[in-house]
Amino acid sequence: MKKNQLVKVSFVLLFSFILGSVLTGCSKPASTPAPAQKQQVIWASTIGPIDAGIVAALEDAYEKKTGVRVRHVGAGTGEALKIGQTGSVDLVLTHAKALEEKFVADGYGTQRYDFMFNDFVIMGPAEDPAGIKGEKSALAAMKKIADKKVQFISRGDNSGTNVKEKELWEAAGIKPQGDWYRIYEKGAQGNVPTLLYTDEQKAYTVMDRATYITTKDKIKLAVLVEKDELLLNYITLIPVNPQKLKGINSEGANAFVQWLVSEEAQRLVKEFGKDKYGEPLFFPNSPAGKKV
To answer: pLDDT tens digit string along 258-292?
Structure first.
């Protein structure tokens, strides 16, 4: 199994996954095995960082350093948090603050750790029938799209990207509806399929910058609105609470989290993507990361 392959499984299959039935052969065991309870950490990650490749890079770096294997399940933020509520994973990587805070408040997560960030952009066809290009306000841009009823594609799956889109509509005082507003039926597959579909439709969408950077050679859509503070995209780590759910590798998850927020891992975040794309895909956001 490729580590960055999206895992679309039922919770029953996911449980089997956690037991290791589908992990067999994913990698060689460490030459000096860690204690059984520490050999593997499982996290549910929002799909964007998986598609970008940073999740696999972090897993590889941590295994090389410690001998502990880390494997991921890919899902939109809303679904990733639901997976966390089953106790099938040891921690989650998500990007929707309100949903994360509820996850912790309900006792499923121990606490939120600032990890990294990038930003969202509003994309559309270069001819820009909504006339939003260069608009400084994301909310003003959303209003123009709605007023002119130009086609807009939404993931519609309660992922972090979809949550951000809904926040923008709400802040703009708009309830999008009508033929111009379309929910992509395969939006749960992730940002890349959604962006490619939006490109085919010559429509508008809200997308994270990392997806745009890694996909821009395949599309004609342009970034039309960017760098509004409302478009910042904060990505957070949350260990699953072992007092709420049984079978959690709390020790392994916490050790992994502490490494992820350390200067070493944050430096990896800072440099990731520069060699291939000429610019970083994410930026460090832990207290230690802000110093690198």
So the answer is: 999 999 999 999 999 999 999 999 999 999 999 99
d(CA 235, CA 210): 12
What is the per-residue pLDDT across 87-119, written as a single tens digit (0 to 9) for each? 999 999 999 999 999 999 999 999 999 999 999
The secondary structure of residue 135, as a DSSP letter, is -
The conformation of residue 26, written as its DSSP 8-state character, comes to S
d(CA 121, CA 227): 8
Beta pairing partners, 183: 154
289-292, long-range: CB < 8 A, 24+ apart: 289/115, 289/116, 289/261, 289/263, 291/263, 292/263, 292/266, 292/267
Euclidean distance between CA atoms 187 and 190, whole angstroms: 6
Work out the average pLDDT over 16-35: 38
Q: What is the number of alpha carbons within 13 Å of residue 174 lying toward its C-beta?
A: 22
Determine which helix (DSSP H) or strand (DSSP E) holds 29, and give its type and residue range: none
Domains of the chain, start order: 11-110+240-260 (3.40.190.10), 120-232 (3.40.190.10)
Torsion of CA 145, 151, 155, 156, to 10 degrees: 80
Element containing residue 207 per DSSP (H, E) = strand 205-208
Contact, 155 vs 184, CB < 8 A? yes
Per-residue pLDDT tens for 166-184? 999 999 999 999 999 999 9
Q: Which two tokens stand for residue 40?
A: 């593997």
Phi, psi of 143 (to 5 degrees): -65, -40
Is 42:88 a contact under the CB 8 Å cutoff? Answer: yes
